[in-house]
């Protein structure tokens, strides 16, 4: 399923034509996940005085809500199985247990988000004087650990985005272009949150969210290629960011309505994203995709 050339993980097109192309995979992923998100969006607009028809529709859609968490996983397993069979599924899922990547990667993906978020939590009251001073307590660290554990189990997005979509895009585009394209797709995937009444539950705007998604996507794209396709590293990084941001209550709706702690967090992530973009460009950006695009050692070795 995978092949590596010039340190870039790509899909191995020499295995024949795919039964479900990248476009079909994205349509299926969005359809399943957005169907699962529909009850959340609809519930935000309804109240006790809403028409019975809308209440009935919400009741009918509620059982589909798990698709919001597992729709991407279902579409990824389906597309991989149809296109690459059991071997492809083994390689895909093998990325979740590809742990021999060097201790530095684990320190980076677990500690760097924490350092950025802690700095943002302390810096928020400095920028916005209306905020109370921040003090890192054991209860906050416990909350981070609990949220991290929940997201590790429930959030399966990285199998879809880095495990399946990114190798497909990198077979067509240079790595930096592929990761920028995937960031746009990934951002659009989260659109239902902004369709809720009052906007995103975290209280931040589309542009701030887009900047964060772009930066995180570049960092994870760098990590995925540098670790020869370790979905595990990307998964840990993704959930570490989620856990630190929520556990330290950096979102405006959790922090007296102030946007500054979250903005500082996004600023720190943006700096990491710029560094990742430079890494992708300097190491791979000037090289065109080869005609076969995919000769090289399997990523699973």
Automatic annotation (TrEMBL):
Organism superkingdom: Bacteria
GO biological process: CAAX-box protein maturation; proteolysis
Family matches, as InterPro entries: MmRce1-like, Rce1/LyrA-like_dom
A single MF term (Gene Ontology): endopeptidase activity
Pfam families recorded: Rce1-like
Domain CAAX prenyl protease 2/Lysostaphin resistance protein A-like: 155-243
Keywords from the UniProt entry: Hydrolase, Membrane, Protease, Transmembrane, Transmembrane helix
Key word Transmembrane helix present: yes
Transmembrane segments: 20-43, 63-82, 103-122, 134-154, 204-224, 260-281
Name of the featured protein: CAAX protease self-immunity
Organism annotation: Dokdonella immobilis
């Amino acid at each position: 399923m995978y092949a590596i050339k010039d340190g870039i993980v790509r899909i191995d097109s020499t295995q024949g034509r795919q039964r479900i192309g990248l476009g079909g995979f994205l349509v299926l992923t969005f359809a399943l996940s957005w169907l699962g998100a529909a009850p959340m969006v609809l519930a935000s607009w309804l109240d006790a005085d809403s028409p019975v028809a809308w209440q009935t529709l919400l009741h009918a859609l509620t059982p589909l809500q798990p698709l919001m968490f597992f729709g991407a996983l279902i579409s990824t397993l389906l597309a991989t199985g149809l296109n690459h069979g059991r071997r492809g599924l083994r390689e895909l899922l093998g990325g979740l247990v590809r742990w021999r990547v060097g201790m530095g990667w684990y320190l980076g993906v677990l500690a760097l988000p924490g350092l950025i978020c802690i700095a943002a939590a302390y810096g928020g009251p400095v920028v916005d004087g209306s905020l109370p001073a921040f003090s890192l307590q054991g209860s906050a660290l416990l909350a981070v650990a609990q949220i991290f554990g929940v997201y590790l189990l429930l959030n399966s997005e990285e199998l879809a985005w880095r495990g399946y979509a990114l190798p497909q895009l990198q077979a067509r585009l240079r790595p930096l272009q592929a990761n920028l394209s995937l960031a746009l797709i990934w951002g659009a995937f989260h659109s239902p949150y902004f369709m809720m009444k009052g906007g995103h539950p975290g209280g931040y705007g589309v542009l701030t969210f887009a900047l964060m998604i772009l930066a995180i996507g570049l960092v994870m794209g760098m990590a995925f290629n540098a670790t020869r396709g370790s979905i595990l590293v990307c998964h840990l990084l993704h959930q570490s960011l989620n856990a630190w941001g929520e556990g330290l209550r950096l979102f405006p709706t959790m922090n007296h309505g102030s946007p500054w702690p979250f903005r500082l967090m996004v600023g720190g992530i943006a700096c990491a994203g710029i560094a990742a973009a430079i890494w992708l460009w300097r190491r791979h950006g000037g090289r065109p995709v080869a005609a076969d695009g995919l000769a090289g050692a399997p990523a699973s070795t």
